[in-house]
Each structure stands twice: as structure tokens, then as C-alpha cells.
Design a protein that fits this description.
By secondary structure, the protein is mostly helical. The protein has helices at about 40-65, 70-100, 110-120, 120-150, 155-175, 180-190; strands spanning about 30, 40. A two-stranded antiparallel sheet has the order 1-2. Helix 1 (about 40-65) runs antiparallel to helix 4. It is globular, with a radius of gyration of 16 Å. It starts with about 30 loop residues before the first strand and ends in a 39-residue tail after the last helix.
Length: about 230
Amino acid sequence: MGGALGMTLGSLLYPAMLGVQKVGSAPERVVATPATGPVTEADRGFVVAVRSAGLWEYPVGQKASKKGTTKAVRTAGEHLVDGDASLDAACRNAADQLGITLPDQPSPQQQSFESRLDGENGKQFDTDMATTVRATNGQLLTTIASIRSTTRNSLVRALADQANSTVLDHITVVEQTGLVDFGRALAQETAAPNLPAQDLTPPPAVAGRPRAVLTPPANSTVSASPTVG
């Protein structure tokens, strides 16, 4: 998707982030009116997208922190785990208050990112991890800016603020590895995913199954997430 930070909500009809289907056919349509402000289709799609992103990136961070071949890669993995756990807690809190149903698995495309990295080791893993995380977070950063500038819901604003800080940190630490293939990352950010809609849609949570929770590390340095923006 890519583009300037001033993109319109209408442009969010194209995937809000790599691996996630469009937010809806009418992004400005109000779907709920809680005390914290109106919630639009775009707001709801954003909350789901944040959850889905963490569900694939968190385990990748765990892998990077263990099998990264350089200290910079292992440090990047630690940042992914810590940031995604904190952001996921904020996402679940916002979703509960806004009545938004969250997935417990990432989209099939996002699962394919994780599966590919599972099968890689050494320098190949390091480079592919850094490049894929840079691409997905680069695209999400643009979406965050659009949602933050248009949402009328204070909880969504707070989530967007925390997501912005987390994503900027993740972009920074993977760039500091010196392994990001920027040509491939930017192409992945801007190219249309040649995949059916079902591959870009996180599967619905299974009724009665415990909700997936991204556990923060014992030495977490991320501060508690806000509940209201």
C-alpha cells in the first residue's frame, strides 16, 4: 500500500497491512457508539489488524532471540516479543470494551511468513526476518497514521498511539541489524498481494477455546498500556 501519511480512509480498502484483508466495504460506516466515541469499520479493522500482526510476529521474535546469529538480531527479537506482548494486552483491552471480536490466529499469509522463517537458519533467517518485519511494520505505520488522524474513539486513539511507538521501535531495531533488504521490503509494502481474500483474513476464534495471550517476558521494559486516549 505505502504512500503518504495523509492517505484517506478510502484507501484503507486496500489491505490495512501485509497479511490482512481490507477493513470493509464502507470504512467510514459507524458500527458502534460506545461512550468512548463512535467506532467505524476502519477502527474495527485496525484493532483486528493489530491483533493479527502480533500473533505472527511474537513467535518470530522468540525465534530471533534464540537463533539469531548476531547480537543485533537477537536484540531485535527481544524487542519484538516485549513490544508485541504489551501491544496485544492493549489491543485485547480495547476490543473487550468496544465489543470487537478478535482472532486467535494470524491470517494464512501471515502464517506463511512464520512457517518460512521456521525453516530457515543462519544468515538466511536473519536477513529474511529483518526484511519481512521491516516490510510489514512499514506498511502498518502508514495505517496507524491514518487511523490516528481520523478516529473519533478515544480507545482506538490510545491503541494507535501505542502501536505507533511499538512499530517505530520494531522498524528501528531490525534496521540496526544491517540486514534489511530495502528493495525487497519496499516492494512487498507496495505490491498488491496476489492472493485470495481468505488468505488475508485471520480465521475466527473458536468458541469455547481459551483466548491466545502473548505473555510478556519476565524482564519486560515496556510500560503498562493506557486504557483511554
